[in-house]
Specification:
Layout (H helix, E strand, L loop, with lengths): L2 H13 L6 E7 L5 H9 L17 E5 L2 E5 L10 H8 L6 E6 L5 H12 L8 E5 L7 H14 L6 E3 L8 H8 L2 H43 L3 E2 L6 E2 L1 H14 L4 H6 L6 H6 L3 H12 L5 H5 L5 H40 L2
Parallel strand pairs: 1-3, 1-4, 4-5, 5-6
Antiparallel strand pairs: 2-3, 7-8
The protein binds guanosine-5'-diphosphate (GDP) and magnesium ion.
Amino acid sequence: MNLKESFRQTLQEIRSNDAAYVRIAFVGQPGAGKSSLINAIIGEPVAAVGQATDVTTGVAEYEYRFQRLVDLPGYGTERFRYEDWAAEFRPEQYEALVYVFRGKLLEEDDSFLRSLAESAAEKHRPIYLVRNHCHDLTGEERQLIRDDLRLRFPGRGTVNFTDCRYGEGISELKEQIYSADFRRLRQERVTFAFTEAKERRLGEAAEKADVAIDRYAKAAGLNGINPIPGLDVGVDLGIYFKMYGAIREAYAIEEADLKKYMAVPVAKKLLELLTKQGVSLILERFAGRLFFKDVLKLIPGLGTAASALLGYQLARMAGNDYREDCRSFAASGMDTLIEELLGE
Ligand SMILES: Nc1nc2c(ncn2[C@@H]2O[C@H](COP(=O)(O)OP(=O)(O)O)[C@@H](O)[C@H]2O)c(=O)[nH]1
Ligand SMILES: [Mg+2]
């Protein structure tokens, strides 16, 4: 598995995590055009649309770039008086609301707008007002609607005029929905879910890598055969290459990834460690840090045991260092990929 495949799996985890999404609910009377607006925003006929009053009877969510557009049944019908509707569908659970209306506002609409306006929690919730079916409205009529809404729902922004049949006002509405504040909230959500999934994945990788390091370090201790100039400890480089390979595999890093994501700072070092020269160089550095080296040399008769211990220690040291570098490479690689995905 390479870094991209591993990232794809992480993405699957995020996609199935409800906490990763910002949800915008479309509310309003039946037939106002909630489902049609969702289709117009997404650009595909995903939601069922119809003349009959209750075409949408359950909650349906449609994903659009890590945002979920929620199609709710209309209220004010025989089936759903406003209070029952609110109790069942709890509009307050959504991060934002798109309030869709056409024609006259009814008493039910007033209950809805009043309850939203009164609750303190609602004061910070974006509510987009949308007068749909607007194609035939004159400028004067539009002004009357704005004034009316301002009275019913004081302190709330502009009215968007849209018409799904004629494609009017859709791009303006989209722009509002993806306004800066909301984009930040969405990115926070995704980033949070992503970080969680990423840490879990890196944690699992570290466990696998540790098992490999332990196994190969023991083998290195028993196999100290090739003395390297400048090193007092014999080293079997083949074991190091195998150990490094196992650690890379734990982090789903392939050689090609290192070349592809050269911009990640640690990639260069990891590439150098694919060569004999690179490994010898780093081992020389680590050997200098081996605490017992000089002490052991002073104790005669401990030759084999001492070199086994040193070989083990050296391999562990190198393995842990490599694991940290792989972790850092995998983490930044995944960060790069998620930024690409979220970039707008
Ligand atoms: N002329 C016109 N018809 C629309 C518009 N929006 C929706 N419709 C139609 O109105 C009907 C109800 O729309 P729908 O999206 O199902 O409303 P919902 O009940 O609020 O989801 C459907 O027949 C749509 O094709 C619009 O802006 N202009
Ligand atoms: Mg509908």
